[in-house]
What we know:
This protein has about 110 residues and is mainly α. It has helices spanning about 5-15, 25-40, 50-60, 65-70, 90-110; strands spanning about 5, 75-80.
Amino acid sequence: MAHPVSVEAFAQMVMKNNRGYHREELIQTLQATLRDKENGAVCMICGAPIWAAGSAITGTYLCFTCTTGEADDSDDYEITETERRPASVKQNNARKQRRKKAKKRVQRNKGTL
């Protein structure tokens, strides 16, 4: 099984070891390819699930074996998570308010309020 790696970490490795990539464009491509894999994209040759990391770099939806000619992916990487967006201030405030209300309800039910 390939080593799981985040989109950001994989992009950093690619940028470090290769010239000619634009970081933001690469991240967008990696995220889009990973979303496609999560939504069921399959290798256009054999029908196996795509290798998202390789497919994003090559621009073709292929599995690991059809991309590399190898069956063992244990020395390679696979992107496994999309970049998580930080919660907005509004979302954080709403979450805090819900927690406060829940805490008050618990205290009220225990008779400590």
